Amino acid sequence: MSVGDCCVKGFEWDGTPTGKTGRLPGSDNDTYIAGDETSDAAVLLVADLFGWTFNNIRLLADHYAREGKVTVYAPDFFGGEVIPSDLLVSEQYDKVDLPGFLERNGREARENEIFQFAKALRAKYKKVGAIGFCYGGWAVFRLGAKENQPPLVDCIVAGHPSLLTKQDIDEVAVPVQMLAPEIDLMYTAEFKSHTFETLLKLNVTFDYQHFPGVEHACFVRGNEKKPGELEAMVRGKNAAVDWIKRFLHEL
User: Fold this and answer.
1) How far apart are CA 44 and CA 116, in angstroms?
2) 15-56 pLDDT, tens per residue?
3) Cα angle, residue 60 at apex, residues 104 and 16 outer, rounded to 5°
4) What are phi and psi for residue 45, nearest 5 degrees?
5) What is d(CA 218, CA 202) in angstroms, rounded to the nearest whole number?
6) Which of 18, 31, 173, 192 is disulfide-compatible with 75, CB 3.0–4.6 A?
7) Are the C-beta atoms of 106 and 7 separated by less than 8 Å?
């Protein structure tokens, strides 16, 4: 599974992030940090192709931290490279070298780095969750794989994943929440069916949420003026908050 133009289309939201930039002890990644670092629980937010500086990602991190009562870390996993967000206004998508970007920042190039960051979080916090959109979707499934002993994360949330494989789904071993737009060339009907059927067989706790009438990227680059997209953004955010609260806090 690759990526397409839908992975760089959408809208940038208004608002000013309230977190800070810094580095997690044990990591060399520049990181956006939202929430109180003294929390017992943390969330690793693996961004889409626009990366850790994207305003929408930082605003989402603020929401997750505030409403989920966790510390949220959105690291730079692209080695300082950024797809400029003004592309969303100019719509000059042909100027983005997606094949080159993915060669430098694809799964093989970045998986170990993402794993190491999760391990640093696990050393600092009692509970750790992972949320990934588009590019980040494959990463959170890998973080939740059964091969990781002890587990790197306690739960995952994936929204309109790209670069995901059926093997990733087959090997997940932690509670999974899927946020799935109806229209998605990256997370196809075949993959959706495989996800549902496989998670049932694995007996993994999961929450599959279908969002009719909306497209890939709606949760991180949705247009609040487009019918259905504001509702999807709000519902998707609330669902992720409820999921991390359920598995990262003692009930």
Assistant:
1) 12
2) 899 999 999 999 999 999 999 878 999 999 999 999 999 999
3) 100
4) -100, 110
5) 29
6) 31
7) no
Region of residue 96 (phi > 0: left; psi between -120 and 50: alpha; otherwise: beta) = beta
CATH number of the domain enclosing 236: 3.40.50.1820
CB 142, CB 110: distance < 8 Å: no
Q: What token pair was written down for 6? A: 């839908």
pLDDT at 140: 98
168-193 as b/e: b if 16+ CB within 10 A = bbebbebbbbbbbbbebbbbeeebbe
CB 30 within 8 A of CB 209: no
In the numeric block, the tokens 């300082």 are attached to 80
Domain ranges, residue 159: 5-248
| H-helix segments, 29-143 | 55-68, 87-90, 98-105, 107-124, 136-143
Q: Which residues pair with 155 in a beta bridge?
A: 129
Cβ contact 164:191 at 8 Å: yes
Q: pLDDT tens, 199-233? A: 999 999 999 999 999 999 899 998 888 888 999 99
Residue 194 has pLDDT above 50, yes or no: yes
Name 218's Cβ contacts closer than 8 Å, sequence gap at least 6.
Answer: 10, 160, 181, 211, 229, 232, 233, 236
Return the number of other C-beta atoms located less than 10 Å from residue 143's C-beta. Answer: 27
How many domains, in total, are found in the chain?
1
Residue 114, token pair as written in the block? 């993402």
Q: Which residues, in sequence order, are bridge partners of residue 209?
A: 179
